[in-house]
Inverse folding.
């Protein structure tokens, strides 16, 4: 069958785009062929598609991202393919790095920020970094966080907050954002555990590590989030942590798409951090009360962090105060304001 030259090229371009999409579902067998086809047809397809009215920046950006995702992730790109979930506007606005392996997404993001001009006075998401694996991931109090490939999400977001913002309660607000995303996508019964964990009745689902840099009268906040998505519960991703862990797959009984978790976080955090800029912790405090795992529970408080050699004191958790500090009532009825940087808190069984 003969096709007019222009129409024939158009068809080839359409087939190319369709082919790239289908390729994400067949990467295990066709990775090398896909990469060669992208190299051969990428530039031509972009030129032809722009000739039919498609935005040049979006075409080029999409092809670049598809090539990057395939090249970096190989057999697991179908699960971490963010590009298929990004809207046209997000494709223009989102600064994202996707890696096969990093020592730490927070560390990588810090290095990126050191080389960026961040004199803007506007609020915004500066950069997003995600990796399939971390070789030197870390949690609160410098605990090592083992981050195996192909199972979970390891993501760091950098937000710019202009002005002298009070960051009290920020990690708690992020925990609420994360919880909402996971509930929306799985329907699970999920709670937050002071100061930085998201949990179910079976154990820890996710953790948060926040690092803040103050410069030129503004805050640069790095929000690192690790979510146990498809790991087996027996594969404990954290060390030095006296609590059980679980995963979304273990709780739901089915595999969960990791890219949807990351994009859900991107969209939810973007709105919630703007709310935090305007309202601070007060804008989230009521929501915390409804999903607080520790409220009314007897807890062990370890001064200086959890250790087998540390003797804890015991009390009953009474929620958090206006600064996001945990309120614990001791056996004498006295209320103590517990700071997250000073202690570890464990449920007493």
């Amino acid at each position: 069958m003969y096709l007019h030259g222009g129409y024939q090229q158009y068809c080839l371009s359409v087939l190319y785009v369709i082919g790239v999409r289908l390729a994400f579902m067949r990467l295990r067998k066709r990775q090398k062929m896909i990469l060669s086809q992208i190299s051969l047809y990428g530039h031509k397809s972009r030129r032809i598609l722009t000739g039919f009215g498609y935005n040049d920046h979006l075409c080029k950006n999409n092809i670049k991202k598809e090539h990057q995702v395939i090249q970096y992730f190989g057999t697991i790109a179908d699960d971490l393919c963010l590009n298929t979930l990004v809207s046209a506007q997000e494709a223009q606005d989102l600064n994202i790095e996707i890696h096969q392996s990093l020592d730490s997404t927070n560390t990588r993001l810090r290095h990126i920020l050191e080389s960026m001009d961040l004199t803007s006075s506007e609020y915004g998401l500066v950069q997003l970094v995600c990796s399939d694996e971390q070789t030197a991931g870390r949690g609160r109090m410098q605990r090592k966080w083992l981050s195996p490939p192909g199972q979970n999400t390891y993501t760091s977001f950098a937000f710019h907050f202009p002005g002298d913002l009070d960051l009290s309660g920020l990690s708690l607000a992020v925990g609420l954002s994360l919880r909402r995303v996971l509930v929306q996508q799985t329907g699970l019964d999920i709670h937050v555990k002071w100061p930085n964990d998201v949990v179910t009745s079976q154990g820890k689902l996710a953790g948060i590590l926040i690092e803040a840099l103050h410069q030129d009268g503004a805050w640069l906040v790095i929000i690192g989030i690790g979510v146990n998505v498809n790991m087996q519960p027996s594969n404990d991703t954290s060390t030095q942590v006296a609590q059980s862990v679980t995963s979304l797959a273990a709780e739901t009984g089915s595999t969960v798409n990791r890219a949807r978790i990351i994009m859900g976080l991107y969209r939810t955090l973007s709105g919630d951090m703007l709310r935090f800029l305007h309202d601070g912790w007060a804008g989230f405090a009521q929501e915390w009360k409804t999903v607080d795992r520790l409220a009314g529970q007897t807890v062990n408080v370890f001064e200086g962090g959890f250790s087998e050699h540390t003797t804890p004191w015991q009390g009953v958790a009474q929620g958090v105060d206006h600064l996001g500090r945990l309120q614990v009532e001791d056996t004498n009825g006295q209320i103590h304001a517990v700071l997250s940087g000073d202690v570890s808190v464990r449920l007493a069984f």
Summary: The chain has a mean pLDDT of 77. The longest strand covers residues 203-215.
